[in-house]
Amino acid sequence: MAATETQFMLSVGLIEKDVNGDTLWVWCYPSVGSDLRQVLLRKCCLTQDGRDFHTFVFGQFCRTWYYITTVEVQEPTALNKEFVQSDENGSFLIKDYDVRKAYLAGSVKDVVSQFGMETIILYTALMLKKRIVVHHPRIEALLEFTRVLPTLTWHRKDWSILHPYVHLMDIELEDLKKCPGYVAGFVDPEVSNRSDLFDVYVNLPDSVITVSQSAKEAMAMGKLHKEVGHLIVQSAEDADRSDSQVIKDISIKTKEILTNLVALANECEDSKITLEVLKQHHFPPATENFLFHLAAAEQLLRI
Amino acid sequence: MEEVDKILIHALKQVGTVVSEETDSVKLFSSELIVEAVVRCIRVIDPGLGSALPTSLPPGMSARFRVGMSLAQACQDIGYKGEIGYQTFLYSNEPEIRSLLMFLVEKLPRERAEVSDQPTGKSVVLQRAIAAVIKAQLAVPWLPSNCRLPLLDETQCPGALHSFHVQSLSLPHCSKGPGKKQLKEVMDYQRYILPPVTAQFSRHTSVLASILEQHIAELSAAQEWDNEWNSQGLLSRLTPQDYHCRKLTRMHKRIKEQLHSATLTSPESPLSGLCSTSDLSELLQAFRCSDPSDHVLTKGTHFTHTQKFTFTQVAAMTSSIPTGHQSENDIQLCQQEELTLLQQQFHQLCSDVNQLAADIKHLSVPYTQVLDELKQNELGNSEKEEKIQVKKKTIDLLPDANSNLLKLQALVEASAKRIVNLASQWEKHRAPLIDELRRLKEICSNQDLESSRKLSEIKTLHDRIRVSTEEAKKKEEIYKQLVTDLENLPQDLSRSAYTQRILEIVSNIKKQKEEIKKILSDTKELQKEINNLTGKLDRTFAVTDELVFKDAKKDESVRKSYKYLAALHENCNQLIQTIEDTGTILREIRDLEEQIETENGNKTVANLERIMDDYKAIRQENSALAAKVRDC
What we know:
Chain A has 303 residues and is α/β, with parallel strands linked by helices. Chain A has helices at 34-43, 76-89, 99-103, 108-115, 119-127, 139-146, 170-177, 213-216, 223-237, 243-267, 275-280, 285-297, and strands at residues 12-17, 23-29, 56-61, 64-69, 131-135, 162-166, 182-186, 200-203, 208-211. Among the domains of chain B are: 1-107, Actin-binding Protein, T-fimbrin, domain 1; 399-489; 491-554; 561-631. Chain A binds chain B through residues 18-20, 22, 24, 26-27, 29-30, 80, 129, 178-180, 218, 275, 292-293, 295-297, 299, 301-303, and chain B through 362, 365-366, 368-373, 375, 419, 423, 426-427, 430, 434, 437-438, 441-442. Chain B: Residues 509-536, 589-628 form a coiled coil.
């Protein structure tokens, strides 16, 4: 995706929590689909008995990004007018927001400092387009953490795999399952029992990463991974380097691995690799396995 | 006092004292009677003490004296705290005797301690009677047949023992329920011809045994049915008859299946030929030897069925078994062949499975790649389609670009305006609808509150009803039991008279207490007044005294009046003193009169005369004895 491509704002809506506890859609412009309306009702924290009050929440549903800000209002009628006015006066220019800056808003260093060497598991999972599920009871921490993860595979610049705020409802899970690989954030602790939803499970408050049984074979790690892991940790621990520099370091290493793979592919006919070709190079088994799966992820495998 | 005496006399009669009918009060007790009563009581209270004491007074005076002393000692040993000596028995007076007898009667052990308040009713009474009879029979010691009284023969001779022999009863069953009507002949038979249960037996002795057995069998069957019905039957939500039918069909099916499987197991062995000639016992053996668990009863999976079929085929192929006996070696050879064949098949299957698994694994990775590609392609396609749509529309509109552009802009503005318009209209509609929603929700929640409140009220009412019914039941039972107890009580004492009297006495005491209280408070008042007045008097006199004395020094008449004042005061004091003394003396007179009365009650004069007579008798005895001693 080119950096200059802008994404358009599709619609704007207003949800209100009534005096007797009902959460209702008041108003939307121009229109919001009924599915999306239901989903947004669930996402906005007004439905949850007013315990937690999250000022800003975002997420993805059916390839549409939604942003919810919640405001506490004393006078019910004033809000409507205010909102309408801001629309007319302040032009909400999307071009003002550089896409790249938005992508870089999270901090890789925090992730590495929390998980240390285990960050390599996340890196591997993202490279192999596996399904990662992150759990944290607080939505803000969840959003902050998950938005960083796609930066580990900077060469793809694919944020459509990011679903930072998902509930365990059928309609959302259906939408999630359409993507082969994703990073999904859940507030519900029940998700740890849904082993059909993830290959890697990250328990954020306890800082524990678990790989599910079915994916253990594909995620086997060896010398190559150790190397990359060391690089990530060293780079992040260096106080002089900023977040963007760390991401750059990681992406350089990734590019190295990928150019090697492409070189291997080019040796074969129609530049596609097969397992036999890999076996000929006598890599250590973990590396061979990793390269095989990576080739599949990067569309370099011969069918 | 008469009631107390009556109770005492009754208790003494129970102990065994012979009291004639005319003596109905303790006043009329003679010394002999007193001694007999006391000794019998002591014998009951403490047999050790009482056995040494005679029940009647001996004639000699010294002996009587000694007996009196020992009786007094015994009473003190038992715990009588009052003053007691030989004179209490020999020269008795009414109050002492009464208190002593009351103490002894209270000390008598209560025989009725075991009658506790167990629940109720005639059946319990019957059971208790039976228990008492059996207890009595068991308490009688066994004697050899020569020593036995004919009364004991019934219970103790071996002829009374019978073996537990049971015969089947034939009982008429009353059929409940409208469905089944008994035949008239059956009913006639049951009514006129069928002998009663006690007459149905050849041996009279097996009546009891058979009835017991029949009853227990029916009882256990009923209990089993109850248990089953309560646990499984109610869960199945069928009527009892349906449940029975279902159970019956199920049992039939099970039996059929078991027989089938038992007959099927035999052909699997190479001794299939024997199956046809196996007799019933072997079949049942196989039937029993198969897994005792539900293994036999499970239907088995499709796989095991097919397995069975293949095995039977294999068995058919490999077994060229003629009917009849086989030698040991041949059997073993056949088994070995079969075993190797099966193993080969198994290995083949294993390798097939492994191969397939490996293939699946290998193909999964390219599969994911293909899926990924597919998804991306689809996304790309849809995006491109959208773009094509837009471009197509633009191209269509391109020829007349400017006007179409203006038209589009106008269209867009118009729709925007319409949306805003509709939104504002909707706002207007929305407000009353929201109010309506709020109102209805409030009504709903109020109704919820109401209904929950009413539910809790109903619950408390139910609880109260339950508690009240239980209490009523309990009270009914207690009432029944008390009625039976009342009937069982001995009728010689009229309890109602006593209870009346007791209640009267209690109310009298209450009244007296009230009166005493009143008098006390009056007295207090009076005393207070007296104190007040005395105080006032003293103060007034002191003041007057001073005043007058001051003037008395100067004036003669004042001095005279002062003298008169002093005299007046003196005389009044004396008057008061005299009054007080009179009151005290009156009190003393009253006390002395009471004492005289009580002393008159003790038959002191008569006793004195007797003492004098006895004293003379003792002196005579002493002199007689002394003379005897001198003579020897």
